[in-house]
Design brief:
By secondary structure, this protein is mainly beta. The chain has a domain at about 305-370. It is about 10% helix and about 30% strand. The protein is built from 1 helix and 36 strands. The strands form 18 sheets. A two-stranded antiparallel ribbon has the order 1-2. It has a two-stranded antiparallel sheet with strand order 3-4. The longest helix has about 50 residues, at about 360-410. The termini are far apart. InterPro entries: Cys_repeat_1. This is Cysteine-rich membrane protein 2. Keywords: Membrane, Transmembrane, Transmembrane helix. It comes from Spironucleus salmonicida.
C-alpha cells in the first residue's frame, strides 16, 4: 500500500524517506511535519525539518542581504548577497569586511572578526586565523594542478580518479581519488565503480540499475522519483507516470510543469530572458537593466528603489528594496520604506525627520519665506507704478491750463 508523501521504501514496504522535507514517524510509519500530528504543511508553507514546524515559504528573505533560504528550513538563510555570509544561527547576514583581506576566506571568525573562521575550496584557517591553508600549519594553499581534499587535508592531483576508475567522467570535489559521476550509459555503484546501465536501460529515465537486481532501477533522472516496485520513474508520488512531452518534473514539489513556462502564458514573467531548466516556471536570467527576485518569479528594474521616498541606495540583490536611507531616516523591516523614529512612519515630501518626528523642511520653509517676500515686493512696486502713472497724468492735464492763463494775461 502506498504511503502518502513517502519517497523511498524498504523491502518490507515500510517508508524509509519522506518527500517535501517531511519527517518520518517510525511508530506510525507516516510522513508528517510536526511530531505525532500526522499532518503536512498547508499551501504556501514548508516544513522546517530540523525544528519539525511549518514555516512560510521564503520567510528568510525578510532578513537583510539574504538571497536564498535553506531547503530544509525556509526561516533560515542559506545564501547572502556578495560581501556577506550567513551567521551561525543563519538568521542574519554578516559583512565580510573585517576579514576580506584574507585570501579565500568565506566567513569571519565569530570571536575575532579580523580573523578567518571558514575558508573556501576545502581550505582551513591557520592556527592564527590569518591564512587559509590545506595541510595543517603549512600556511600554503595547494599548488597549481591540485586540489585540497576535505577528508584527508592533503593536496591531490586534479581529476586523478579519471585514470584509475574506468568510465568515470567527473571526480569527487572533496576527494579527487573517488568518482562523482560516470560517463553516459554507466552509473556509480556504492563501491565507487562505474557499471553499465544496459540491463535496466529499457526503463524510461532510469540512470542507475539496482545492484541486487540489475533488471530494476535504483535511480531516476530528470527530477523523477522511483516507485515502490523500482520499475517506473514517476513525477507525482504514486502516479506511476513520468511527464508528457514538453513538460518537466519540478524538484521538491514533484509536479509536471511546461518547459520554458516563464516565457509563455499564463506565467509570462515580464522582462525574463530565460527559464530554469529544472523548473520552467522560474526565471533564470532577466533582460539588461533588470535583476531576478529571490523567488525567481519576477524581474525587477534596477534602481527601482529610488521611488521610495528618502532612499538613496538600492539593495543589489533586490533593487526594488532600499539598502540605505538618507540621513535621519532608517530602513523599515525588509527595505520597502524609509521611516522616521520609533513610530515607523515615512515622512512626506518637503518634510525631514527631526527628534523622531516629521517636521517641515527648513529649505521648504525658507523657500516659502522668499516667495512671500517676493510677492510683497511685487505688490509694493505695482502700487508705486500706479501712483507714478496717476501723478504724471494729473500733471499733464493741469499744464495746458497754466499756458492759457499766461497768454490771457498778455
Amino acid at each position: 500500500m502506498s504511503i502518502a508523501n513517502c519517497l523511498e521504501y524498504s523491502a518490507d514496504n515500510k517508508c524509509t524517506k519522506c518527500a517535501f522535507f517531511l519527517n518520518l514517524n517510525t511508530t506510525t510509519n507516516q510522513c508528517e511535519c510536526e511530531h505525532n500530528t500526522g499532518t503536512v504543511c498547508p499551501l504556501n508553507q514548508s516544513c522546517a525539518t530540523e525544528i519539525k514546524k511549518c514555516v512560510p515559504l521564503n520567510e528568510c528573505l525578510s532578513t537583510l542581504h539574504c538571497i536564498a533560504c535553506k531547503y530544509f528550513n525556509h526561516s533560515e538563510c542559506y545564501k547572502c548577497a556578495e560581501g556577506y555570509y550567513p551567521s551561525l544561527t543563519e538568521k542574519a547576514c554578516i559583512s565580510l569586511k573585517p576579514c576580506q583581506r584574507i585570501r579565500k576566506c568565506k566567513a569571519c571568525s565569530d570571536i575575532t572578526p579580523a580573523q578567518c573562521g571558514i575558508c573556501q575550496s576545502n581550505l582551513n584557517p591557520s592556527s592564527d586565523g590569518m591564512i587559509c591553508e590545506c595541510v595543517a600549519e603549512s600556511r600554503a594553499e595547494c599548488p597549481s594542478g591540485s586540489t585540497c581534499s576535505a577528508l584527508t587535508r592533503t593536496c591531490q592531483t586534479n581529476n586523478s580518479c579519471l585514470s584509475t576508475i574506468n568510465n568515470c567522467k567527473i571526480c569527487d570535489y572533496n576527494n579527487h581519488q573517488n568518482c562523482y559521476a560516470c560517463a553516459s550509459g554507466f552509473y556509480l555503484t556504492k563501491a565507487g565503480a562505474c557499471q553499465s546501465t544496459s540491463t535496466c536501460s529499457t526503463l524510461t529515465s532510469c540512470n542507475a540499475c539496482d545492484e541486487t537486481d540489475n533488471t530494476k532501477c535504483a535511480k531516476c533522472s530528470d527530477g523523477l522519483i522511483l516507485n515502490i516496485a523500482k520499475t517506473v520513474c514517476e513525477c507525482a508520488l504514486g502516479s506511476n507516470l513520468p511527464c508528457q512531452s514538453g513538460y518537466q518534473c519540478t524538484p521538491y514539489t514533484h509536479i509536471c510543469a511546461q518547459k520554458n513556462a516563464c516565457l509563455t502564458y499564463p506565467v509570462m514573467i515580464s522582462s525574463c530572458r530565460s527559464c530554469y531548466r529544472s523548473d520552467g516556471r522560474l526565471c533564470y536570467a532577466c533582460d539588461t537593466g533588470y535583476t531576478i527576485s529571490p523567488t525567481k518569479l519576477q524581474c525587477v528594474a534596477n534602481f527601482s528603489c529610488l521611488t521610495i521616498f528618502g532612499c538613496n541606495t538600492c539593495n543589489p540583490s533586490q533593487p526594488n528594496l532600499c539598502l540605505q536611507c538618507v540621513e535621519g531616516l532608517s530602513i523599515y523591516k525588509d527595505g520597502s520604506l524609509c521611516v522616521c523614529g520609533s513610530n515607523n512612519k515615512p515622512c512626506e515630501q518637503g518634510y525631514v525627520c527631526n527628534d523622531d518626528q516629521c517636521q517641515l523642511s527648513l529649505v521648504k520653509a525658507s523657500n516659502s519665506a522668499v516667495i512671500g517676500c517676493s510677492i510683497a515686493i511685487a505688490i509694493l512696486l505695482a502700487v508705486i507704478v500706479v501712483l507714478v502713472v496717476f501723478l504724471v497724468r494729473k500733471m499733464s492735464v493741469k499744464a495746458p491750463t497754466v499756458v492759457r492763463d499766461f497768454h490771457g494775461i498778455q
